[in-house]
Amino acid sequence: MAKEFRPLLIIFFSFLISSTLFDVSVTTAADDANEVLGPADGFRALDPEDPLVVTIGKFAVDENNKQKKENIQFENVLKAASEQIGAKTEYGLLIKAAENGTSNTYAAIVLDSKDSGKELVGFRKRNLAV
Fold this sequence. Notes:
Largest sheet: 5 strands, antiparallel
Radius of gyration: 14 Å
Shape: globular
Protein name: Cysteine proteinase inhibitor 1-like
Distance between the termini: 33 Å
Order of helices and strands: HHEHEEEE
Strand order of the largest sheet: 1-2-3-4-5
Structural class: alpha+beta
Number of strands: 5
Strand content: 35-45%
Keywords: Protease inhibitor, Signal, Thiol protease inhibitor
Signal peptide: 1-29
Number of helices: 3
Pfam families: SQAPI
């Protein structure tokens, strides 16, 4: 299952790197997302303050803490995008969270399915100024 989503992870992390290096901003409008990500990418920008996006961001941090035995505290979602893949939705998030009192930025990929629920596909610390 992880191999199936590797290309999507590469696309998302490439976008995060390019948006950081070249100051590309993601807005909440689908048209702006298509301009930034390209219509072929299939991702659409989401409002980082949307309650669903915040819930998914909290899930990503909590699930990472369970899997890696860490104690990262969710603060907020900075950027978010999603892509529909059949009956599943893949969310790419840039999250601000604190570790030992220091705010850091994390990139997360969460797969959500009505059948199997949420699954954390990827979570890693980014070297971005917060």
